[in-house]
Design a protein that fits this description.
This protein is an alpha+beta fold and 1042 residues long. Helices cover 19% and strands 32% of the residues. The strands form 14 sheets. A four-stranded antiparallel sheet has the order 1-56-55-54, with no helix packed on it. A four-stranded antiparallel sheet has the order 2-3-4-5, with no helix packed on it. Strand 54 and strand 55 form a beta hairpin. It comes from Ophiocordyceps camponoti-rufipedis. This is Small-subunit processome Utp21 domain-containing protein. One of its GO terms (cellular component) is small-subunit processome.
């Protein structure tokens, strides 16, 4: 019979059908972590953004982030509203907004690479355009006008009908020498020019084609022979006028109808040609008072500046928006910069810009009095370069959930970002002060807009590249910490004013400390205020800072240097409080030496007075300090360095207490600490990870397997796993209790940094040369994770989390994912039978059952009623009247009859039970195997077992019918088998309590009891010896002197 249909809507997350079980060969996933999402990507590619008006109130801006598109709402402050899915097979090369849809072209950049053209609407793919099969060039630009869709490649243009999306014709540019027919300036259209498109060529010519007939109508010759190729075409608001920019810096505005230039300016140069032009269309902005029309904006990919032109009176530069986006860095390959597109919104005093620095910004002209340069309106951005380090914020003393929400990251672009995993709009970059104001004072922003080469750079005004992050929120005062305007990163060691100390003591102080590449100062940050802190803390020996740490209380920062010094500073005052080793004056050194000479004969007393075998002032690292840890109680500081030493210091005195000496080849490159279990993990130079117990100072685990250097490692939130990322492209997860490699993730490129949230919900990882941060969800929070050892050869490449969400999983999706390999991962549970005949095995019977059997008499005594129940004097009003109740005599007679019937049935069942118990016992005695009898006795309840033991009898005097003797022999056999030890003791105790008078009068039973007692004594002595031996071994291993 077919199931009936379900009435009403189904509840959430209810499985309505059985999923198809796959073989597992075509699906490669991690057993523990599921890809969740990628944060930090806004506009990291060179693909220009596209905009579309949304009604009369706002605009939507769409940017490319590789294989997906992100759409932002301008009215809501560039709030992210859509992310397209599915993601394209390869990177997107061109986009355009059209009738509420987004067209995205992808692929074709490499030889034999697939390519296509997809149509998205509200983040979902709704259609696809079929490109001609002979097309082997990537799409560079898409333009829509009228009933046509124009797809521009390198030397050809494909024309589609916008209504049916079918291919109409192909236009090939006219051939020319030296690749002069390449479309370098893109394609554009002109208002009132029906069915006409304009193509900018590499030889400086501009061709006008009729897309309906597919014919070349006219060719506009270059303004001069040496102007270079066309780089940009843009129609002006004035009819028949078009702006053309050339690669040598020339920009002209030409009348299309007469083919005559009306205006000619030098807007760039050969190193920085103009690549984007936009005209203001709200009718204002030009002139001395800003009330005239005729404003043009130009930008170049070689700088981050936007130049505004007043086209009235022959054209002049009216203003330059300096460093609207970061210019290309000195390492332009990893940290690109420059502008990719600028666009004035139609009818609005707003210009939108995007750059290769992974940012999207909007600017508005609304200053009073009138100014020619706009102010920032909205901004969305991320790291402009690859990410170096990650750190989830810990929870503070109030249990604030920052540890699961906020992620700190430092990148090669010299920025420190805080990412919100709950709402993208809350993500922010921590301010490094008024950078633009400083640049204006030192003259960086005062250069001529038309000068040769990059005109502005803010790179040198920021702190150097961040390499290490340490945080503690216990002293963070939030947004109210140290109110007012404060100087940032003071490098002097002057003591602050008393009022500053009082204010900071009441409101809190800095909670983040960072180390920087090639810099001798560590810097502090206010997390609550999202800005730079007051102190730049120098290394103890004037060398570069290599690593930093912060105490759990949030009051002290510990800094390690490249030459081996370790210094501790107070974060409230910025004053140095201790050095490791502590600084010893000459007088103290002489006294120490004299004391050693006087007491050299008494080694124990010498150790007691000097704190061990390491005198104060000794034990300094001789090479670069690679890791520093402060324990959870502020008692010890642990440091490791490239000299192969792991040192344990006293927090208060700075004296070296202990050290572990590893070889230089296996020197630790980094250190991680888990406070809950007191374990330290070190990534060593021999590509191994060693785990050291904080209490015993001994190595308890050593994990090997990485074939290249270890980039980063971290503990899981519960301290059960160690997660390590290495240069061979694998992220490995080891299980600490079993020492097994239980999972591995193989990525296309190596992971460079790792961090796990304090709740264990997320694992954050960065990919080499990528500006985004990938987030993985932990499936073990909702499902069992086997700890079976896996082989690295079986690990296949896994796709990293994507922005689009294609293939990504949240926590619940990961929890309910069907695990096809579950059957293979299952390990057969060990049998409940004895594992070895030399082991004493306990039973699987619940403890409460045999304990109840021992004290059954006492339980019955306590449960006896103290007095018989009494009838109520007067029945409540809601009980039925006595008239309807049966007569007492008749009721008593019925109860008696029923009780007799029950008694007969109960007696019959009891007789059957006793007969079965005796039969099983006698049958086991005849065979000499009492296993079935013991199994039957285990299945009885405490009251039934007590009744059966009471029913044991001597029989007719022969050995075959003596049930007491058989029972004793069964217990002896169980004791000899070394099984069910505690049950044997309980049953013998109850047996002797019930039948001691009968046993004492029978020599046969007494002889059997002596045999049982001898076996019991032998097992007792054997167990005592084994327990004593194990206790001694454990004590020996735990002793710090062995």
């Amino acid at each position: 019979m077919s199931p009936s249909p379900v009435d009403g809507p189904l509840p959430k997350r209810r499985r309505t059908c059985t999923s198809v079980v796959s073989t597992g060969q075509d699906r490669k996933t991690s057993r523990i972590f599921a890809p969740f999402r990628t944060v930090g990507l806004v506009s990291p590619t060179c693909v220009p953004f596209t905009s579309t008006p949304l009604g009369k109130t706002t605009f939507q801006i769409t940017t490319s982030v590789g294989r997906a598109l992100q759409t932002y709402d301008l009215l809501r402050g560039l709030n992210l509203v859509f992310v397209t899915r599915p993601q394209t097979p390869v990177d997107i090369t061109a986009t355009v907004a059209w009738r509420g849809k987004i067209l995205a072209a992808w692929g074709g950049a490499k030889k034999s690479e697939p390519q296509g053209l997809w149509v998205f609407q509200r983040g979902k793919k709704v259609d696809e355009l079929k490109l001609p099969p002979d097309m082997a060039e990537p799409v560079k630009q898409i333009v829509t006008f009228g009933k046509w869709l124009i797809v521009c490649a390198i030397t050809r243009v494909e024309v589609f009908k916008s209504e049916s999306l079918e291919h109409y014709t192909t236009i090939h540019t006219m051939p020319a020498a030296e690749a002069g027919n390449e479309i370098t300036g893109g394609v554009t259209t002109m208002p009132t020019f029906l069915n006409k498109i304009f193509l900018g060529r590499g030889d400086g010519k501009v061709e006008m084609w009729n897309v309906k007939t597919g014919k070349l109508i006219y060719t506009f010759m270059p303004a001069s022979p040496d102007c270079g190729s066309v780089t940009c075409l843009e129609p002006s608001p004035a009819l028949s006028l078009m702006a053309i920019a050339y690669s040598e810096g020339l920009l002209i505005i030409i009348d299309i109808l007469t083919d005559k230039p009306l205006l000619q300016v030098e807007a760039g140069n050969s190193d920085a040609p103009v690549n984007c032009i936009s005209f203001r269309t709200d009718g204002t902005g030009a002139g001395s008072d800003g009330r005239k029309d005729g404003v043009m904006a130009t930008a170049t990919a070689a700088s981050g500046d936007v130049t505004f032109w007043d086209l009235n009176g022959g054209g002049r530069v009216m203003g330059v928006l300096r460093s609207a986006h970061n210019p290309p860095s000195r390492d332009g390959r990893l940290i690109p910069g420059g502008l990719t597109k600028i666009e004035f919104l139609p009818g609005q005093p707003v210009i939108v810009t995007s750059g290769r620095d992974n940012s999207l910004k909007s600017w508005i002209f609304d200053k009073t009095p009138f100014t020619t340069v706009p102010r920032i309106l909205h901004s969305r951005s991320g790291h402009a370069g690859p990410v170096n380090c990650l750190h989830f914020l810990p929870s503070d003393f109030d249990g604030f959930e920052a540890g699961n929400k906020w992620l700190l990251s430092g990148g090669r672009d010299r920025s420190l970002w805080g990412w919100s995993l709950r709402r993208d709009g809350q993500s922010t970059e921590l301010s490094q002060g008024a950078i633009r104001k400083k640049a204006g004072k030192v003259g960086i922003l005062a250069a001529n807009a038309l000068a040769h080469g990059p005109v502005s750079t803010l790179e040198d005004l920021k702190a150097p590249e961040i390499t290490c992050i340490a945080t503690s929120l216990n002293r963070d005062g939030g947004i109210g910490a140290m109110p007012g305007k404060l100087p940032i990163w003071q490098k002097g060691q002057g003591r602050p004013k008393a009022t500053d100390a009082e204010v900071s003591g009441a409101t809190g102080w800095e909670s983040v400390v960072t180390a920087h590449r090639g810099d001798s100062f560590a810097r502090t940050w206010f997390w609550g205020r999202k800005r730079a802190g007051r102190w730049a803390l120098p290394a103890g020996d004037s060398s570069n800072v290599s690593t930093v740490a912060i105490s759990p209380c949030g009051s002290f920062a510990v800094i390690g240097s490249e030459l081996g010094s370790i210094v501790m500073y107070n974060l409230q005052s910025g004053i140095c409080r201790q050095r490791f080793p502590s600084k010893v004056s000459p007088a103290q050194a002489r006294q120490l030496r004299l004391r050693q000479l006087q007491q050299a004969d008494d080694v124990a007393q010498l150790h007691a007075e000097t704190g061990g075998r390491f005198p104060p002032g000794t034990g300094k690292h001789t090479k670069r300090v690679t890791g520093i840890v402060v324990d959870s109680m502020n008692k010890y500081i642990i440091s490791c360095a490239l000299d192969g030493m792991v040192k344990f210091w006293d927090f208060l005195t700075g004296t070296l207490l202990n050290q572990i000496d590893w070889s230089v080849k296996s020197a630790p490159a980094m250190c991680r600490y888990h406070a809950a279990n007191g374990l330290l993990a070190f990534a060593c130079g021999d590509n191994s990870i060693r785990v050291v117990d904080m209490e015993t100072k001994k190595t308890i685990r050593e994990f090997r397997g990485p074939r290249d250097a270890i980039n980063d490692l971290c503990f899981s939130s519960d301290g059960r796993w160690i997660i390590g990322a290495s240069r061979d492209g694998l992220i490995r997860i080891w299980d600490l209790p079993t020492s097994h490699l239980i999972d591995a993730i193989r990525l296309e490129r190596p992971c460079t940094a790792l961090s796990m949230s304090s709740s264990g919900e997320y694992l954050a990882a960065t990919i080499e040369d990528e500006p985004g941060v990938t987030i993985w969800s932990n499936k073990s929070l909702f499902r069992h994770v086997p700890t079976r050892q896996i082989s690295e050869d079986d690990v296949d490449q896994i796709s990293a989390p994507t922005v689009s969400g294609e293939g990504n999983q949240g926590l619940l999706e990961g929890a309910f994912e069907d695990d096809e390999s579950a059957a293979g991962d299952e390990i057969a549970a060990p049998s409940t039978e004895q594992l070895s005949p030399d082991m004493m095995t306990l039973s699987t019977v619940p403890k409460s059952r045999w304990q109840t059997l021992l004290h059954l008499d006492l339980i019955k005594e306590r449960n006896k009623p103290k007095e018989p129940p009494k009838a109520p004097e007067k029945a409540p009003f809601f009980l039925p009247s006595t008239s309807s109740a049966p007569a007492p005599a008749r009721q008593d007679a019925a109860a008696t009859t029923e009780e007799e019937a029950k008694s007969r049935i109960t007696k019959l069942d009891q007789a059957r039970l006793e007969e079965r118990f005796s039969a099983v016992l006698r049958k086991a005695a005849m065979r000499g195997n009492y296993d079935d009898f013991i199994t039957h006795l285990k299945s009885l309840s405490p009251s039934s077992a007590d009744l059966e033991l009471r029913s044991l009898s001597l029989g007719n005097g022969t050995a075959e019918t003596n049930e007491l003797l058989h029972f004793i022999q069964a217990l002896i056999a169980r004791l000899e088998a070394r099984s069910d030890y505690e049950l044997t003791q309980a049953w013998m105790t109850v047996f002797l309590r019930l039948h001691v008078d009968v046993v004492s009068q029978s020599q046969v039973l007494l002889s059997a009891l002596r045999r049982w007692r001898a076996q019991q004594m032998r097992e007792s002595r054997r167990l005592d010896e084994l327990v004593g031996y194990c206790s001694g071994v454990v004590s020996f291993l735990r002793s710090p002197w062995t």
